[in-house]
Amino acid sequence: MDFGGLLLGFEFVLSFQGIFFVFLGVFIGTLIGMMPGLGPITAIAVMIPMTYGMDPVIAIVLMAGVYYGAVFGGSSASILLNAPGTSSTVVTAFDGYPMAQKGQAGKALAIAAIASFVGGTVAVILTMLFAPLMANVAVSFGPAEYFALMFMGLLLITTLSEGSTTKALISAVLGFMAVTIGTDAQTGTSRFTFGSMNLLDGIDFLVVALGLFALAEVCFLIINRNNKMQNTANLGSLRLNKKELKEMSGPMSRHSVLGFIIGVLPGAGATMASFMSYIMEKKISKNPEEFGKGSIKGLAAPETSNNAAATGSFVPLLSLGIPGSGTTAVMLAALLVLGVKPGPLLIEESPEIFWGVIASMYLGNIFLLLLNLPLIPYISKILQIPRQLLISLVVMFCLLGVYTVSFSTFDMLILLVFGILGYFMKLVNIPAAPFILAFILGGMLEQNLRQALTISNGSFDIFWNSPTAMALFAISLLSFIVPLLFRKKKMK
Amino acid sequence: MKFTLNKKLSTALSVISIAYLIMAYQLPEYTLVPVDSDVIPKILGYILLFLSIILFFLKDEEKKEASLPRKEIGMLLGTAVLILFYIFLLEIVGFIIMTTLFIFVSSRFYGYKKYITNGIVSIGFSVAMYLLFNELLLVRLPSGWLPL
């Protein structure tokens, strides 16, 4: 354990600037996450233009705060409105909303806040222990191993995502195709640019992220703009008694670890973690019939788990430089723009970034608790902002975000195209997360493959001779075949 | 045989993959690189074609096709038109005027009737953003017709 590093991180985070930006991140994240339909990817993507020119440590601390703030904000919307802001808080509504209907909204919010805090904090400790270990292993990785790793990440996100695997794969392939547009870095060939000068540099990831997520989400906001939100007016007491706290402790300890592990796995994120925790908690519960009717355990389990997973997903990002989810993919892209290259060398070369993020997570979790418990009644007022106004502002944020990055009206047109694409994808149930992950990993994947094959002079032996790469390919293959076999069994 | 959603999607995707493949085959070749710039695109094109064929034979998910009222399609198209206007006029007219107009007009378009609040929000937002970017983040937004 590198305590010197952690001290360095805290030194930064506990400065005025550090505290301010962690607070700001958590606050903005909570606000955006609370708005129905807007999720963490949108929250982070909207923040990106603001971080240009910032010190990279501050930028990532801010974005990390926005991320777990948004996850928590989503939970509040689930509890209060039965309208989950993101897929990772769908499960929260199962027991949170019934509690709110019983007049215990305050209690449910308190449980969610405490569970999130515990899940997040345990996961930070685990991240601190595991990320450096993983980085040590990855230092020896060459292009062949990296190719295998990214390949696995991409395949896992498609097999693990909800819904049809075929559609998730289609989404990933489309994302990969989108990134082949532009000048090929190795040969200088311009690919799929249709002779347009504007496309020579390829498409900026921010345009894709804002279009595919934010703008597409706005389309659904527009359609549902007149749905009246019945806000739970009476929150009730926020206080929990001893018995209730005791009831939470079991699920919290179990699912903070489970959530973390799922978060670290490439492809599986907060959504899957929350579902798995809920199912597991229900299975081991003595009275499973309470689940779905306002069970404290049923609320604490997914809430612990989704925050733990959100934190755990930073492990592969920081130690390998490989995002395991759509959200961390967007964050990776933002870091690359700031000149930070996350990967196994990050801890050595820029310890202040690595440890700054870790330290900010401790602080962020505390803020999340402090901010949310007393302020929840006020924060939930944001839900009363007229939808019509909100929609215009979100659209404006997307346009502004793209323009301030490239100063090109052409990019805004591309944004519109991706917004339309994202809307249609949602309409026909093609998930967008594999698209953005493939868009960001695709370029690196191709580069590593070609580097590997250039080193070996075109021979595939470079993969055969690397046990790590072969092991990773084996895992990818298994992740693909096992679910298929299970499905066959079920059919019989 | 009913032409289900999956079949429609599959058809559209196979058209895309074939078009993509045709373009991939037209990429110039270099002899000295072990993996040329056309290899990955060709692989991607074939995978997409393969996936769309699988999709053709898959049963549709239980979830019903989301049906959209005509009026809502109009709303979405209207939004797209407003965005297009914004994009084309932004650099000519300037950030503050266009942004104020955009927020005001689109909020009204979605049915927001409080003109005064709308006006305050749209002017406040565009001025605040202009100041934030120009003064704090040092990013120049187009000033356009306003003598700024």
From TrEMBL, chain A:
The keyword Transmembrane applies. It comes from the Bacteria. Keywords: Membrane, Transmembrane, Transmembrane helix. This is Tripartite tricarboxylate transporter permease. It holds the Pfam family TctA. The chain crosses the membrane at residues 12-32, 44-70, 76-97, 109-131, 137-156, 205-223, 257-280, 320-341, 353-376, 388-406, 413-442, 462-486. InterPro entries: DUF112_TM. The keyword Signal does not apply. Residues 19-437 form the DUF112 domain. The lineage of its organism: Bacteria, Bacillati, Bacillota, Bacilli, Bacillales.
Automatic annotation (TrEMBL), chain B:
The keyword Ribosomal protein does not apply. It comes from the Bacteria. Residues 15-142 form the DUF1468 domain. It comes from Oceanobacillus bengalensis. InterPro entries: DUF1468. Keywords: Membrane, Transmembrane, Transmembrane helix. This is Tripartite tricarboxylate transporter TctB family protein. The chain crosses the membrane at residues 9-27, 39-58, 79-103, 115-133.
